[in-house]
Amino acid sequence: MEKRYARIRELSDKYRDYTANNLARLVRIKSLTSGERDVQLELQRQMEEAGFDEVFIDGLGNVIGKIGNGKRIIAIDGHMDTVDIGSPANWNFDPLGGEIRDGFVHGRGSVDQKGGPASFVTAGRILKELGFDGDLTVYFTGTVMEEDCDGLCWKYIIEEDKIRPDLVVITEPTNLGLYRGQRGRMEMQVHFYGRSSHGSAPERGVNAIYMASRAALEIDKLNDRLAPDPFLGKGSITVTEIISQSPSLCAVSDYARIHLDRRLTTGETIESAVREIEAIVTGMNAKVNVLTYSEKAYTGLEYGMDKYYPTWTVPEDHEAVQSGVKAFKGLFGRQPVVDKWTFSTNGIMTCGTYGIPTVGFGPGNEVLAHAPDEKVPVSDLVAASAFYAAFVYEIAGRNGE
């Protein structure tokens, strides 16, 4: 295995410029959620050029590359949509320039998270060059619509494409750490129904804004009562929007709505989170509901799910984690940092919903996700491409040459 690790390192370094240039091409193609068509065609081209056994685009627009034809299935996933660039004044370089300089690839999506797919394209090329023939099927998935609804792409892959891996690697940025979980999240709204009256006599009405305001203050206090988890930490809740209506600006509000972002730790569920809010609005004319997402993909297909994204963790002694540790140590001669994401990923579907063991490893620092001046070290891309190839060999149980 030591010789194979050395060969993987050698090839990942040999393809340093290849990986960086592939990422630069992806960064130069703007790809907001539901607008990924052009970047998907470029990723498909890169997979085909790298020699993947099969490459296709499914009905939702996910690019799926395949290497091998074994009984056991693993998937290496990265989403291809990005958030927008925000104010150009906050950037010190062209956010869609894909410039390669000073050891970095610069631009929106370089970290979150086109760097992962660029690296796994190179990993696929390495596997083909090494003649990988383990009893394994590896799917490399460039997925869509994650920024608006994480996990939706994997709901489609599992339920519609009928591809259900035995193990998944998420390539979101981890600063080259090995991640094994994340807090979940959900989106709720609370609707408050009042009764209007003339603004000169507010006592005749029931002000929905006051109901919403009292509830919002109590919801904030809920943060102090949420139970911690030793690995993932505490959940959280915050009001992110308040909207109201009334017959006029001279009338008491008869309707208000608040939007809630709820982060969920181990043991917290959609049911428990809804009950907490229902308890707060008891006695008010109010209704709590969990939101749903349903939008058209760039293919024209409309698809959706509830906006509930379950918490997930994988035990540190699980094969998926330990194989990652072994691959990292074999490549780089040191133990990886084993940790968790602060944000949400497609793992909420693969592991949180379907129970498929999932780990994360990706190039770039997550603090640059969604931030101006986003850039990823080329050295991280090299390390990630080596890791994905080595991980495949570890899972395939390749012992020796």
Topology of helices and strands:
Layout: H1 2-14, H2 16-27, H3 37-50, E1 54-57, E2 63-67, E3 72-79, E4 100-101, E5 104-106, H4 115-129, E6 136-143, H5 152-159, E7 167-170, E8 178-182, E9 184-193, H6 208-222, E10 236-245, E11 255-264, H7 270-280, E12 286-290, E13 292-296, E14 302-306, E15 308-309, E16 312-313, H8 319-332, E17 338-341, H9 347-350, E18 358-360, E19 375-377, H10 378-396
Helix pairs in contact: 1-10, 2-4, 2-10, 3-4, 4-10, 8-10
Structure described in brief:
This protein is of the alpha+beta class and 401 residues long. It has helices at residues 2-14, 16-27, 37-50, 115-129, 152-159, 208-222, 270-280, 319-332, 347-350, 378-396, and strands at residues 54-57, 63-67, 72-79, 100-101, 104-106, 136-143, 167-170, 178-182, 184-193, 236-245, 255-264, 286-290, 292-296, 302-306, 308-309, 312-313, 338-341, 358-360, 375-377.
Written description of the protein model:
With 401 residues, the protein is of the alpha+beta class. The protein has two domains: 2-183 and 311-396, Aminopeptidase, CATH 3.40.630; 184-296, Alpha-Beta Plaits (2-Layer Sandwich). It is 31% helix and 24% strand. The protein has helices at residues 2-14, 16-27, 37-50, 115-129, 152-159, 208-222, 270-280, 319-332, 347-350, 378-396, and strands at residues 54-57, 63-67, 72-79, 100-101, 104-106, 136-143, 167-170, 178-182, 184-193, 236-245, 255-264, 286-290, 292-296, 302-306, 308-309, 312-313, 338-341, 358-360, 375-377. The chain has a six-stranded mixed beta sheet, covered by helices on one side. β13 (292-296) and β14 (302-306) form a beta hairpin. The radius of gyration is 23 Å and the shape is elongated. The protein starts with a helix and ends in a 5-residue tail after the last helix. 49% of the residues are buried. The model has no long low-confidence stretch (mean pLDDT 97).
